[in-house]
Amino acid sequence: MAFEFIAEQLAQQKLAHRLRQRQCIAEQQGAKLFYQNKEYLNFSSNDYLGLNQHPEINDAFHEGIRKFGASSCSSSLVTGFSYAHQVLENTVCEWLNKPRCLLFNSGFSANHGVLHALATDQTQFWLDKLSHASLIDGAFSGKAKVKRFLHNNYDQLEQLLMQKKLPNNLIVSEGVFSMDGDRADVNALQNIAKKYDSWLYLDDAHSLGVIGDKGQGSTSINPDIDIVMATFGKAVATSGAFIACNEELHDFLINFSRHYIYSTAMSPANAWATNKSIEIIQREHWRREKIAELSALFSSTLDPEIELIPTSSSINAIVIGDELKALEIAQKLKAKGIWLTAIRPPTVPNGTSRLRVTISASHNLQDIKSLAENINKVIH
Ligand SMILES: Cc1ncc(COP(=O)(O)O)c(C=O)c1O
């Protein structure tokens, strides 16, 4: 029978308690989420700055629809690239102080699209072990050689680079790691890149908006990062993504990145709303300050025996280890009105199932106290 593996693999997932299913959320309002007529405090959202449903962004969306339409109606190289896209690209360039910016429909397609375009047989990618699936898939999608180094282990990275054999070397890391919330040392990475005549590619999905005095992410720490990718689907609270880079790479991607060329351009209304969101992110510092304040309260209220990965981002990971135990804890918290998804393999390595708590600017002190106290009770 054709495609027998489909039923087989689903059955295996079920047996291993790993069958993934979606839950249809009725509404998300600030820190609250509504599901099956019940209200929950949401600690699983990537809306780090609490900008979803911001009236100015919603208005910009409506204005964008009126001015440019909901759809771009074609790919960027045909007629899909509009004034709204140009304005957004310019805004990102100014914000990050980079010469060029190129928009993609998602962070996944940006990562995949760029790495695939650079993956010649004379290219070697050096990926942090905890890189996102889109980076891994992009790196392996072409003819390039791929080597993964231990998470944030730059001694090992240097040892590997000393033996590099190919002329085009790209170090790939995340700025803030998605499932751990810890950070790469971007200065160290950029120095290593320079020392070994390589480039640095930084996925700033979880840094943008949250890190830097104006939320510029890792470029606020090191302005020389060769290629920066970030998604608009997290702190920016719209959707899509960008690549910030030099002029030559920008032109190369327009000509050779299949994800860019053969895909309908981002909705111009979305681009217009994203531009507004970035304006708010740059001026409303209190949102970043609040995340820092609430994160400090969370770690100080949590039982000291509970292991929290140190972070200076919105992501607070509590490693539980066993998958079923992590699921059970998440289930118990849900019964108490706290929505906290258990993250399990293959998203994280075996034996490191965890609770991934995201603290956002829309939470308040009481939300965080209630979360920490409930986690203390449920874990013990
Ligand atoms: C580190 C990282 N890179 C890329 C992506 C993909 O971004 P998007 O959701 O816009 O496809 C994500 C999010 O899922 C992510 O966590």
Account of the 3D structure:
It is a single chain. This protein has helices at residues 4-15, 55-68, 76-80, 83-96, 107-118, 133-140, 154-162, 186-195, 247-256, 258-261, 268-283, 286-301, 323-335, 365-379; strands at residues 27-29, 32-35, 38-42, 100-104, 123-128, 145-149, 168-174, 199-203, 227-231, 241-245, 315-321, 338-339, 342-343, 353-358. The protein is an alpha/beta fold and 380 residues long. It folds into 2 domains: 22-49 and 285-379, Aspartate Aminotransferase, domain 1 (Alpha-Beta Complex); 55-283, Aspartate Aminotransferase, domain 2. Strands 4-10-9-8-7-5-6 form a 7-stranded mixed β-sheet, with helices on both faces. Strands 1-2-3-12 form a 4-stranded mixed β-sheet. Helix 12 (286-301) packs parallel to helix 14. The protein is globular. The relative contact order is 0.16. The mean pLDDT is 96. It binds pyridoxal-5'-phosphate. The site of pyridoxal-5'-phosphate has 13 residues, from helix 5.
For the structure shown, list the relevant keywords.
alpha/beta, about 40% helix, about 375 residues, 2 domains, single chain, Aspartate Aminotransferase, domain 2, Aspartate Aminotransferase, domain 1, binds pyridoxal-5'-phosphate
